[in-house]
Amino acid sequence: MTKAKTPSLTLESPKTLAAATAAEELNAAATQLENAQQAALARQITGRDLKNIQADYDLAKLRSDAVQAAADRERSSLAPDAEIHAAITGLMDDSSLKADELTAAFAQLDTALQNIRDVNNKRNAAILGWVNKLRDLGVPDQGLTIDDEEVKIYTSATAGTTITIGANQISALRTPAAYVAHAVNQHTRDARSQLLDPATLTRLDQRDSERAPAFRVKLTRPLGGKPAGHILSSREINPTNLARTVRDGNAELIEGTLPELPAEASRTYLPVGSDTTPLEGTPTPRQAHDTARDDAAVTHAVDRAFS
Predict the structure, then answer these.
(1) Is-contact 172 128, C-beta < 8 A?
(2) Alpha helices in 137-204 (DSSP H)
(3) Exposed site from 149, 187, 248, 258, fewest CB < 10 Å?
């Protein structure tokens, strides 16, 4: 019988990515120091130059050691792969996380509110029925007294209908909206003036959503504070921005497949009579603008993801 294989886990957090970048920078500093030492032996650079390069290497090593130690602590705090995988599987299968019951509860609330409106309308109709009956009997809105208690009928477009018999009073409720607002106010104080449609509650549980395949690129020049050679993943940076970076020659694809970029129309307005033949290799104003815009977007995304 073949033993079931537990999926392996890969940790690519900001700390581990920072450690990888620092290691690359340290290797570059080590190569620079080695070359400088050879140059110093050949009397091509001064001792002061060598000392400065040695200081750069020492600083790169200090940084690398610090971020590597932080990454090692993060890795050591992880539980065994099998336990983490079991927890993630349990999370994905936990039926208590579904939004179905919450959606159903809001449906019950809507039913309850409709019931309030129906009951109030029924009561108002009954009061109006009595008003009509009294008037059919010739009872005026004011002036009739029974056992020293005057019968009065008040009608108002805003307040509704009220019947008073002495100190006794029966009033219609034109709309229950204000009472409903008071009843739910304690549950909605933190919402301020924000209104959200309960139909969107399904967004709270999207465990069945398909995940786009990841891809990674390597910078071919410094960008967003990161040196050439730095690895960027579509898990941290917007995939479209990364694809544009590759398109513009600022990075190269090293893993996965680039997504298709949306087509963008290019328009260039020239004076009447201008030569419209483009020079070979010269980007149009729109292309130059798009390149600057895409670089700025990636720079911002890189800074936000790794700062």
Answers:
(1) yes
(2) 177-188
(3) 187
